[in-house]
Amino acid sequence: MSTNPLRVLALTCSTRPGALGPVVAQWLIDAVTPRAAELGVELVPVALSDLNLPFLDEEEHPSSGVYQREHTRRWSAIVGAADGFIAITPEYNYGMPATLKNALDYLGREWAWKPIGFVSYGNTSAGTRSVQHAKQVVTTLRMVPLGATVAIRIGESVDKGRLRPDAARDAAGVALLDELVRVAHALRPMRERVRAGILSGPVPGSYVRQLTPDDAPEVTVLQRCCWVDEALANDTLAIPALHESLEDVRQWLASWKTTGIWLDGRLLGMVRARRIDTDWHLGRLAVVPDLRGRGVGRWLLRTAEAAAGPDCGRVVLSTGAKSVRNVDLYRSEGYQLVPVAGHDGTVCLAKDISGTPR
Predict the structure, then answer these.
(1) Could you tell me whether strands 158-159 and 41-47 are parallel, antiparallel, or unpaired per DSSP bridges?
(2) Listing from the earlier edge strand, what are the strands of the sheet with 336-338?
(3) Full set of structural domains in the chain with CATH
(4) Mean per-residue pLDDT for 176-200?
(5) What letter would DSSP give residue 336?
(6) Which of 119, 155, 284, 307 sits most deeply, having the most CB atoms within 10 A of its CB?
(7) Closest Cα to residue 135, out of 96, 185, 79, 94?
(8) Structure pTM?
(9) d(Cα 357, Cα 353) in Å, to the nearest integer?
């Protein structure tokens, strides 16, 4: 399971002036915020009434992802950054509000592989028919509706425009959040494939994306398991990758272009790169021990090389002086040892790419 925090939108769907939606939304936020903090969830309240979305007015189909209107681009950014949703919705004429349907219709891939739970309110059915209606729509968008719901019957729960205290309802809200978090974590690899443009990696089912400071926990684990062999081979523990804190890793992830290979939420390998003068520097090439010898490291190396700018003259990297396996890999890819001043137990290798078409 990824350790990155989840962002959950608490979406107030009714835009009718004087509607009960904001009251129900506030109850939900108050009831589940302590549990959200325990789970590391960022709970973000969003009201459709604040977005001022007109009826869908984009010329291109939402599946194209081509948006001309500023309100659509703003809505796309809000939904795209979320990992899950709790819709607080009334029931209008046996169905969900037109405002919710319209908001769903505006977008396509931004909804994909994200769970959605419902807090409904109404009279006879406590809004449950609205939820059944919405579930038919959200599944078409590749969302995953939860089994857990909260249904509030207005006549029994509302007094003078406020919700009466109800410990059972509070517990149901927390249970809804718990289920949403479990499903959101399970679906994270599929969401990341969408966000990464589904660029396939070298292992069947894997995908590639650029790493960010939020990936520091996974990168730290990968480094610790990969550089133990380096320490043994070179008879030293003075290897930065073995000692860096989470904050250290976050800092260099912010300044290096780092490519990661993922499979089912697991970071399989990585390599980082950045330009210094006319040299393209590579480092932290790592592959999980159980995948070594299957060409993953070579694939990462070539991918990082290909990202060098056309005016870069060479690719430069270093490794432990006694890391025979690494040196053999680099030499087989055209790297040559480069004399460097001083000696810290590492060797520097470089590859001329000045004449390589890019």
Answers:
(1) unpaired
(2) 207-210, 257-263, 266-276, 279-287, 314-320, 346-352, 336-338
(3) 6-187 (3.40.50.360), 207-352 (3.40.630.30)
(4) 83
(5) E
(6) 119
(7) 96
(8) 0.62
(9) 8
